[in-house]
Q: What sequence folds into this?
């Protein structure tokens, strides 16, 4: 049909039937496109003349205002607007379409979290370059004989630390673009250039799509499983073989060999031709995990986390979409990758709070993983030594199946746990280790064994004050003290990243030498250990001092090789590590996590301390855990000492059931924020006036959020509590629709809030 005829057929011939036919024809050419923007709905476009209408899921480029954007063709009929008012789709991109189950997933996550669907879609297409036709690239590799050349010590071939890091990054035949290589090796581009110039590193032009990496080999045999492990593995493998949706909780004590056990299920899924997704809480800590995967399946899996470079991200996204990547291990955002053949999801350390994403789209990745598995009709395994109360309750309700590993692998026994009642201990000012812990450290070192000291606080001291005038250093944009970091000589805000140099004198009264640190951070603890045990070799394991996963892996290797006697760290030491000679764990301040109004404070303290304690005595030497606390009578401390997890969980469950809190009721937080205190209060009052008054729904607030000012924004908080029968999202949607707030005010909805800051 010629173009001008299509404008308005009814006007031309005045025939209703013809008009209907024409508009039906047009309707066939309607294309609904979801764009990765915070828009409330999909937009209508027209398929270009003379081309096939792109199928739902196709990635298409469309005009929006003056921009050209990539979006995804969505399901359902369009047709709100007349055809002549619509713009045509510009082109379809040569990428496999987004599968229906992923489109349903986007919709469900959007509805659950109350985020515009486009913002959820944006997470599935987080690598815009992956959607464009690939181009050839220049990649660096290690030249053959490079190592020998370096060892010869010839001029220009000196092995500086920066060069060593470059070579490390290229180990195992890795190939990377020069910029990416410099970034990974934490060196300037000049270091890479010099290595290229002297022929130690080579650069080659490689075709756009990398050759397929070898897939993990499920035929390789793993270790011989213990009888417990065999029973557990068989259940997981059966579920994979059966297919269909089902949640299994692999509940095994620390060191019971949960990883080897779920590897069996992973192998079964691979053998069945399926893709597998493994979520880990902080992939940066996964170096030991990756080595184990390689030992079991011969190659490394594809990885997805914030620390991978742009080129790898692009390759991985495409490899997943094209089914070339068979196993992906990743942080929570890996859940939004476009797997076409996903057959199994494993969520390791399912209780870990880092599964909750707190900004942008606020979601709990473990819960959304269950949702994705349900939509895709595949099995999912939740793995933990300390399952979350939510998961435990789902097992009790019969919704999840539980598979247990009650014993440590081989001869290893669980460590003994002892509380150190700080109320009865005498400690010099400025020191934080009580005599019983000091004595245990001494005997550990004397026996040639290793220790771990855990304190969940980065930096040197959480508060610095002036002895002369009482001045305290506070963040200019948050309700928070600045934390001194002595290694970098700075005062840092742990909430917004504000940093300033430690001044030579008090900025308030100008007194010199009057600034005193209050309380301990890991850096200060290191000082104390060094003072008490000058011969002990100690290392700090803290995220801000370790540059990337490789540095963390190196430190872990050094610990395994017993180049250190004691590791001092924050929660990053708690997970995953397996150090055979580590026999003593000291928890320096067990009460830290119990303050604040977080409803999961006790549960989290239990999980974290149990997890840290689980690092002790994992091989043939028996482990000991000492927990310093001012509250030894708290149920959580008693449960830790008695290793009575189930009684603790029962008490926790009873308390939450009584209070109607999750998982026995629903909870949401509304954070209202603005640059000006007045506007936020005005908006909060307007919201309060319109608050829902429904049976089974209670609205608490507005109250200043515990961090009343964060990044310069004033914050007020509502908590909405409801019974499980209430459709909380609908209640909130209705409430928010009835209130207009000024454009400078932001209202954020957090369904199932975890952070109560
Ligand atoms: P968990 O994850 O339950 O804490 P791991 O999976 O880390 O436990 O296992 C603890 C240690 O025991 C690891 O070093 C692991 O390699 C080893 N292990 C577990 N199961 C076996 C097995 N069947 N044969 C040999 N070694 C095993
Ligand atoms: Zn701040």
A:
């Amino acid at each position: 049909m010629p173009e001008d005829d299509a404008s308005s057929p009814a006007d031309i011939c005045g025939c209703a039937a013809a008009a209907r036919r024409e508009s039906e024809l047009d309707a066939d050419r309607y294309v609904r496109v979801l764009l990765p923007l915070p828009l409330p709905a999909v937009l209508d476009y027209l398929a270009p003349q003379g081309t096939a209408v792109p199928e739902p899921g196709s990635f298409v480029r469309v005009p929006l205002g003056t921009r050209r954007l990539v979006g995804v063709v969505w399901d359902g009929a369009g047709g709100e607007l007349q055809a002549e008012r619509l713009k045509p789709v510009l082109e379809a991109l040569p990428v496999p379409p987004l599968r229906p189950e992923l489109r349903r997933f986007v919709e469900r996550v959007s509805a659950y979290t109350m985020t515009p669907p486009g913002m959820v879609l944006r997470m599935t297409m987080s690598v815009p370059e992956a959607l464009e036709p690939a181009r050839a690239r220049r990649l660096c590799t290690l030249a053959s004989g490079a190592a020998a050349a370096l060892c010869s010590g010839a001029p220009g071939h000196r092995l500086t630390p920066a060069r060593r890091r470059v070579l490390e990054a290229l180990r195992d035949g890795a190939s990377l673009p020069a910029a990416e290589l410099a970034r990974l090796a934490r060196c300037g581009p000049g270091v890479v250039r010099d290595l290229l110039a002297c022929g130690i590193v080579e650069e080659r032009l490689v075709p756009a799509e990398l050759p397929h990496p070898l897939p993990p080999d499920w035929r390789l045999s793993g270790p011989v499983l213990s009888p417990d492990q065999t029973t557990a593995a068989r259940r997981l493998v059966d579920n994979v073989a059966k297919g269909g949706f089902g949640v299994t909780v692999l509940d095994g004590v620390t060191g019971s060999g949960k990883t080897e056990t779920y590897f069996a299920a992973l192998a079964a899924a691979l053998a069945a031709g399926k893709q597998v997704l493994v979520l880990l809480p902080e992939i940066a800590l996964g170096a030991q995990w990756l080595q184990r995967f390689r030992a079991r399946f011969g190659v490394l899996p594809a990885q997805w986390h914030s620390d991978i470079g742009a080129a790898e991200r692009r390759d991985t996204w495409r490899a997943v979409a094209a089914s070339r990547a068979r196993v992906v291990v990743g942080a929570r955002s890996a859940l939004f990758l476009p797997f076409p053949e996903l057959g199994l999801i494993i969520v390791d350390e399912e209780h870990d709070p880092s599964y909750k994403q707190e900004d942008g789209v606020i979601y709990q990745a473990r819960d959304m993983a269950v949702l994705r598995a349900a939509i895709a009709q595949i099995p999912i395994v939740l793995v933990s030594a300390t399952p979350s109360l939510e998961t435990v309750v789902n097992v009790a309700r019969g919704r999840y199946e539980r598979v247990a590993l009650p014993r440590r692998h081989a001869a290893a026994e669980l460590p003994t746990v002892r509380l150190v009642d700080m109320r009865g201990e005498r400690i010099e000012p400025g020191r934080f280790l009580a005599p019983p812990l000091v004595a245990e450290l001494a005997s550990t070192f004397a026996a040639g064994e290793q220790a771990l000291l855990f304190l969940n606080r980065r930096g040197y001291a959480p508060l610095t004050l002036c002895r002369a005038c009482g001045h305290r250093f506070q963040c200019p944009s948050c309700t928070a003290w600045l934390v001194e970091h002595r290694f970098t000589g700075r005062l840092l805000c742990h909430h917004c990243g504000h940093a300033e140099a430690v001044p030579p004198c008090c900025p308030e009264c100008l007194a010199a030498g009057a600034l005193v640190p209050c309380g301990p951070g890991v850096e200060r603890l290191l000082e104390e250990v060094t003072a008490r045990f000058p011969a002990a070799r100690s290392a700090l394991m803290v995220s801000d001092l370790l540059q990337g996963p490789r540095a963390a892996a190196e430190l872990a290797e050094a610990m395994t090789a017993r180049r250190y006697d004691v590791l001092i760290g924050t929660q990053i030491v708690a997970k995953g590590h397996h150090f055979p000679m580590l026999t003593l764990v000291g928890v320096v301040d067990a009460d830290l996590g119990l303050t604040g109004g977080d409803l999961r404070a006790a549960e989290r303290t239990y999980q974290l301390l149990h997890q840290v304690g689980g690092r002790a005595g994992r091989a043939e030497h028996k482990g000991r855990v000492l927990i310093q606390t001012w509250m030894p009578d708290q149920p959580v401390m008693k449960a830790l000492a008695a290793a009575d997890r189930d009684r603790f969980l029962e008490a926790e469950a009873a308390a939450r059931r009584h209070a109607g809190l999750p998982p026995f009721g629903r909870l949401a937080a509304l954070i209202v924020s603005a640059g000006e205190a007045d506007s936020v209060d005005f908006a909060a009052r307007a919201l309060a006036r319109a608050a829902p008054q429904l049976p089974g729904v209670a609205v608490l607030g507005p109250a200043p959020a515990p961090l009343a000012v964060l990044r310069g924004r004033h914050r007020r908080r509502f908590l909405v509590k409801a019974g499980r029968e209430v459709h909380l999202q609908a209640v909130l949607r209705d409430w928010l629709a009835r209130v207009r707030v000024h454009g400078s005010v932001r209202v954020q909805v957090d369904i199932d809030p975890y952070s109560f800051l």
Notes: The longest strand covers residues 697-710. The first helix runs from residue 9 to 13. The mean pLDDT is 88.
